[in-house]
Amino acid sequence: MKPFAELSADSLEYLFPHFVKLEFNRGSELIQSGKPCQSLYLIEQGYCRAYNIQDGLEVNLNFYFEFETVTNLNSYIFNTPSNFTVVACEPMLVYRIDKKNLLAAIQQSPEIDIAGKKNLQLIAAKQERQLQLYRILTAKGRYEFLENTDPALLQRVPISQLASYLGVKRETLSRIRNKRRSSKTL
User: CA 67 to CA 41: how far, in whole Å?
Assistant: First the structure.
């Protein structure tokens, strides 16, 4: 519940009863494409991936790990169907809060409103960072960026899913990784 860790005891008292603790098995969907997403999922344990289907293939859009919040921001804000699916990649423990319950808690405490907005800003910033990865950097550059900023992602995500996320074929990613390893040993 890191996004709300700085709240006062009174605000926490209003907020915590609205969270539902959920466990997801590997392969379980948190968010379904085509259905509105009106919840925030705070990850305590495990990780998941957001993907959509393009030309019959799953294309990974993002990964979410411990202490991050998962939602489809556009669906959450505008109450539109999600354009991607979020699925657990390993067993997960999450806390879900539905939008209507968060709004009710906000009515009780302006401090919750501030924390909620900060959390949504973090989600938006992560999405923008990923968009910039694709607009500015080459496949090699994207991999190097992740090496420097998110090495845990490179260690936990299988190579085929990572290749999809970086927008390259698995073989291309293997070549990039091998060249990076060989250049570090020289």
Answer: 10
How far apart, in whole angstroms, are the C-alpha atoms of residue 7 and residue 13?
10
Give the 3-state secondary structure of residue 66.
coil
Measured distance CA(157)–CA(163) in Å, rounded: 10
Residue 178 tokens, joined: 């091998």
> Distance (Å, rounded) from C-alpha 84 to C-alpha 49?
10
Which residue carries 């919750």 as its tokens?
Answer: 112
User: C-alpha distances in angstroms, 141 versus 11, 77, 133, 180?
Assistant: 43, 32, 8, 11
**For residues 171 and 184, what is the distance between their CA atoms, to the nearest angstrom?**
20
**Amino acid (1-letter code) at residue 140:** K
- Token pair 């190579």: residue: 159
At 173, list the tokens. 């990613």
Distance CA 12, CA 74 (A): 27
Q: What is the pLDDT along the chain (186 residues), one digit of tens a residue?
A: 566 667 888 888 888 899 999 999 999 999 999 999 999 999 999 999 999 999 999 999 999 999 999 999 999 999 999 999 999 999 999 999 999 999 998 888 888 888 888 888 888 888 888 777 778 888 889 899 889 888 889 999 999 999 999 989 999 999 998 888 877 665
Say how many C-beta atoms besides its own lie within 10 A of residue 23's C-beta. 12
